[in-house]
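Format notes (please read before filing issues)

Several people have asked whether sequences and structure tokens are stored in separate files. They are not. Every record keeps both together, in the order shown below: the sequence lines, then the token lines. Line labels are part of the format and must not be stripped during preprocessing.
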Amino acid sequence: MKRPWLCIAAAMMLGEAAAYVSGKMWLIMTVVSVTVLIGVVFVIYKKVTDKRRAVIIMCIAFLFGIFRLKAFDCSLSVPAALEELSDTGVQGKYTAAVDSIEIRPERTVIRCGELIVYADPVKENAVLPGNTISVSGKFNSIPVPTNPGEYNFRLYYLSEGITHRCFADSITVTDDRSDPVLSFLYRVRSNILAHISSIYDSDDAGILRAALLGDKSLLDDELYDLYKENGIAHLLAISGLHVGILGLSIYRILRERLKLSYMTCALISSVFISAYSILSGNSVSTVRAVIMLIIIFAAGILGRKSDIMNSAGIAAFCILCIHPYELFNCGFMLSFSAVIAIGGPARLIIKELGIKNSLLQALAVSFSVQLTTLPITAYFFFEISLYGLLLNLIVLPLMTYVVWSGIAAVLLSYIYVPAAYIAAGSSHYILNIYTLLCRFTGKLPFSTIITGRPALWQIVVYYCFFFAVLYFSRSDIRDRKSPLSMSDKATEST
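Then the structure lines:
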């Protein structure tokens, strides 16, 4: 196989999807699916060449996907006390250790194993990761959606390993022993968020807090809707763009400026981006970017060249091994489909058409990402932005300056506050440009097209047509460029 990990990850995803759809009939579904898969793939490859090993590996990956999802379901061993409280549906008390905490203006969100707790705002550092708390309130399991088109909160929470929730009346710390590493990162995060809020006005602070540390507690709803309607809401989430900017910049500074060894640069950069991932909430797009960057660093140490598609396959495999339900998460789908678009259709278009101009290359990448993610966007958000393609060409390059301006402003705020305000100026004006562009495109005709949720068969037909067009266009371009076709044209001209 040319890209083995991409194929393995794809087969594993199919297995998990089959296990989820089949429900309790998963064992029968497994036998039938594997039999059909082996038969079809073997017949196809038998006619082309002998690739039995590839067939066997993909079948094993498919089976692994099925059993991994079911094993995850079995591993969600909810404590009996929590189950009892959820079944009764009355007020109760439950004691658990804190895994993470997020303090928002309107409420506090605490993660305790399989339980997520929503409570009134608490004081800063009153509850820390590792503390044991006693929660009083009403407990229930995450409900299954009952209305067509309703967001599936159960699937989302399952992707995080959460099965129950509680709307707490009161929280009491019964054991103040905390996790030293997570508590330190939590304090650092809280301190940085406070500095961002002190430097920027409310709108800019909400965007910078979301873009740099994944905190959307101060993000204005109207501003978020404006970004979402124009197809640039991805800028408000920690993504591979931000991690790539930070990770590669640090690596290049260490390697090119300080002249450190590949191993030292890779280790320092990997530790930094891993800590940043934890600091920003470990979103799936961040974890994906961290894994892919570590692969790039490892390739530099080994003197080899990394492949973006294969690296994405490794990242997907690792993420799904830990949290198999991430497969059904919007963030997972959008993040990996964007990477596949960059490494597949975009690279193909640039290579086959021989595009050398950087602006045209950016247009090809943006066009490929938009077309590849379009069905996913329509499925989860019920609408698409017609001008998002052109808008992303402007906002994405400028986002690098927003990130570095924000980082510089935060660092300078610890040294000399007036200098921090100066550093924050560029990000402030760029964010104002974003808002003006969004409002301008929002007034254009057909700026937002309401699609509703497309059916599964429509998505399959779309992707089949999309990749068929790419395949036959590639074949046509190669035929036009081949020496035989050139000689035929010369013969015809004479």
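For reference, the curators noted about this record: The beta strands are 91-97, 100-103, 108-112, 115-119, 132-141, 164-175, 383-385, 448-450. Residues 199-454 form one domain.
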